[in-house]
Amino acid sequence: MIKYSFVVPAYNEEKNIPMLYQKVLSLMDSLNDQNWELIFVNDGSRDGTWDVLLNHSKLDARVKCINLSRNFGHQAALGAGLSYAGGEAIISMDCDLQDPPEVVAEMIDKWKQGFAIVYARRLNYRKDNFIKRYASKFYYSLLDKFSEVSIPRNVGDFRLVDMKVQRELNKMRGKSPYFRGMVAWTGFKHAYVDYYRPDREEGESGYTLTKLVQLGMSGLMGFSFLPLKIGFVLGIITILMGCGFLTYMIFDALINDVYYHLYKFLVVILFMFMGAFFILLWILGEYVGRIYDEVRNRPLYIVHEKVNIDEYSHIE
Ligand code: UDP
Ligand code: MG
After folding, report:
1. What would the pLDDT profile of 284-315 be if each residue is shown by its tens digit?
2. Atom of ligand 1 nearest to the CA of 207
3. 108, 195 in Cβ contact below 8 A?
4. N or C of the chain: less Cβ packing under 10 Å?
5. From CA 179, how far away is CA 94, in angstroms rounded?
6. What's the pLDDT tens digit per position in 40-60?
7. 303-to-188, 191, 289 alpha-carbon distances in Å
8. How many angstroms separate the alpha carbon of residue 311 from the centre of ligand 2?
9. Rounded CA gap, 91 and 100, in Å?
10. What is the pLDDT of residues 108-155, one digit of tens each?
């Protein structure tokens, strides 16, 4: 059985692949373990990535390559790679050497100590502009407050997972995966390895703003039902405001003898109806949320350990 699987999505990374391969080679040499595979997923690159990958796989059978038919995005490519990884420990990392293979040695150490999930955690700030940094801060605090599991901060998709975690990940069938959330969701024992994230080695980031927003939405929608509950909050606020106005107008009439035109009453009543619509939208949202929950096919629970229970007594 293979011990270590490296899973690397690659999008326009022809220049980085040879460097990454060399680094993995020397890492595994230093660990004195040749029982590994390096799985590249070519995510519809427009440069020579696939040819470079083919060359490497000809020279070294431990290099395995998957070619996607087009660009499906980082998370999908990662999912493809994970589903083919056969190792006992699976390490997912970027192709651009921003996830330095040197850190992996420490991650493997933690895995050997019994942690099923080892996250690599960035110590330095992202070199993004001011707006992107604050937007990301705001996003993560939102996710932190409203998500059903706590998703670690400053952690990307550079991590090691044990095969038992990977098996659970492969079972999940959602169409917009958010692996950092899914991994945290499994709830297995985890540890962190801190590192300073360098700049990308060659080429440019494949994460356009649209892809980033999509990823963010996958996180929020996959792990919290906040967007669906907005209707509830708006509905309550609107109805309360309507009630407030109406009471004011009635009392004004009764006490101060100020009479309002009928249309003003109508406006206030319409206001309250709008609130009712929001509430109805929220109820629809709750149904949609439940359907979404079913479709994602996350298991109801994950068994961590079993004692005196034989494997075959369980009916799938
Ligand atoms: N990537 C991918 N598909 C894409 C965009 C990126 O497979 O559509 C890969 C890319 O080759 C790299 C990893 O995902 O291995 C991270 O992407 P990138 O470095 O562009 O993101 P950043 O580090 O800027 O967040
Ligand atoms: Mg990068």
Report:
1. 988 888 888 888 877 777 676 767 676 666 55
2. 20
3. no
4. C
5. 14
6. 999 999 999 999 999 999 999
7. 10, 20, 25
8. 42
9. 12
10. 999 999 999 999 999 987 677 777 788 888 888 988 888 889 999 899
Helix (H, G, I), strand (E, B) or coil at 65: strand
Query: Three-state SS for 310?
Result: coil
- Please, where are the H alpha helices in 86-154? 101-112, 130-146
**Ligand 1 pocket: which residues have CB below 6 Å?**
9-11, 13, 43, 71, 73-74, 77, 94-96, 98, 200, 205-207
Residue 8 region, left (φ>0) first, then alpha (ψ -120 to 50), else beta?
beta
Q: How far apart are CA 104 and CA 106, in angstroms?
A: 5
- Tokens, residue 66: 């998957």
- The structure tokens 């940094």 sit at 133
* Ligand 2 centroid distance, CA of 179 (Å): 16
- Indicate the top mutation candidate among 6, 7, 11, 128 to test ligand 1's pocket, ranked by most ligand atoms within 8 A of CB: 11
For ligand 1, atom 5, the nearest C-alpha belongs to 206
Task: Give pTM, 2 decimals.
Answer: 0.83
